[in-house]
Specification:
Elements lengths: L16 E10 L2 E11 L4 E5 L6 H9 L6 E6 L2 E2 L5 H6 L2 E3 L12 H13 L1 H9 L9 H13 L15 H13 L5 E5 L7 H16 L6 E5 L3 H7 L2 E6 L2 E6 L1 H5 L2 H8 L2 H17 L10
Parallel strand pairs: 3-8, 3-9, 6-7, 7-8
Antiparallel strand pairs: 1-2, 1-4, 4-5, 9-10
Helix pairs in contact: 3-4, 3-5, 3-6, 10-11
């Protein structure tokens, strides 16, 4: 997989995150089979598929929490296939999890401050933790950044509240805010709408759209979600996984009308088998398969 030299910023139109031929096996189970995906700057990419399709596995590979058996991962022009999750985070990759992983005794603002300092002032973070006598007021730049995040995430009113007292929808926003405080270029979101009611889901989706459209450094989002309608409504590109394979990639309109996608959700396995056979025959003949998006 071609990559730029370390320290060289990729072209503004080049993909921010690339997965190329990702294959993952768990014993005799094929979790992902030759899956490829590109995430451009300032875009929202949705990953959907039935239960067990491989969505969370792909997110784990992208974030560095799981090593693939084959394939490559590129981040901002660098090959990070063998890089740790911590190394990828330093290069601008952040993620959230299905269950919010928060410190119940800290306030909303505290969470954002800690994440911000972990990224831009690690020496200050360790000094504050190990020697409380060294505690200093936050800098003007830090305060401005945290206040901006609170405003964007609609958390200003609860900024000083301990997260233990807040509902799940707000906790999701806090976790997103903590990830954004590290100034990532790509944010991976694992089922962010899980457990939320319609109002909370709509609020979270509006925040996602806002931070991409109004962001100042081309932030991209990758969303794994079971709510297909929500993903289609917010995403620029959608990738559909089924049994570890990418069966369709394209715009929401293209994916919505794809026969293989409808078959995957309706359970028409024979249709999927025929679609794969048609694709193989088309590849051999050099013609595009009918009714199937390129993957």
């Amino acid at each position: 997989m071609p990559t730029s030299q370390q320290g060289v910023e990729p072209d503004g139109q080049a993909p921010i995150l690339v997965a190329d031929g990702i294959t993952v096996r768990f014993g005799g189970l094929m979790a992902l089979s030759n899956v490829s995906l590109e995430i451009g700057p300032a875009t929202i990419v949705g990953l959907v598929g039935p239960n067990g399709a491989g969505k969370s596995t792909l997110l784990a590979v992208l974030s560095g929490l799981l090593r693939a058996n084959a394939g490559h991962v590129g981040l901002r022009g660098e090959d990070v296939t063998n890089a740790s999750a911590q190394s990828r985070a330093r290069r601008g990759l952040a993620r959230t999890f299905q269950q919010p992983e928060l410190f119940m005794g800290l306030t909303v603002r505290d969470h954002l401050v800690v994440a911000h300092r972990a990224r831009v002032a690690r020496h200050r973070l360790w000094r504050d933790m190990l020697d409380p006598r060294s505690l200093l007021p936050p800098s003007a730049a830090e305060t401005e950044r945290i206040d901006d995040l609170l405003r964007i995430l609609k958390l200003t009113r609860v900024a000083e509240a301990p997260v233990a007292a807040l509902p799940l929808g707000v906790l999701r926003l806090v976790e997103v805010g903590r990830a954004l405080a590290s100034d990532p270029h790509v944010l991976l979101l694992d089922e962010p709408l899980s457990g939320l009611d319609m109002k909370a889901s709509e609020n979270l989706l509006s925040v996602f759209k806002s931070i991409v459209e109004k962001g100042d450094h081309h932030l991209s989002l990758v969303i794994v979600e079971h709510d297909v309608a929500a993903v289609l409504a917010i995403s620029d590109t959608v990738c559909v996984l089924n049994f570890g394979e990418c069966i369709a990639t394209g715009s929401p309109e293209e994916v919505r009308s794809d026969p293989a996608v409808r078959a995957a959700y309706l359970g028409d396995s024979e249709h999927i088998r025929r679609s794969r056979l048609d694709a193989q025959l088309a590849d051999q003949s050099g013609q595009a398969p009918v009714g199937r998006l390129s993957t």
